[in-house]
Amino acid sequence: MALQSVLNAGEMAEREQIVRNLNLRINEGKPPQQKLGQDDFLKLLVTQLSHQDPTAPMEDKEFIAQMAQFSSLEQITGMAGNFARLTEMLTNTEASSALGKSVELNVTAPGNEDEQVVQGLVRAVTRGTNPQVLVNGTYYGWDQVKKVFE
Question: Domain residue spans in the chain?
Answer without folding.
Answer: 58-150
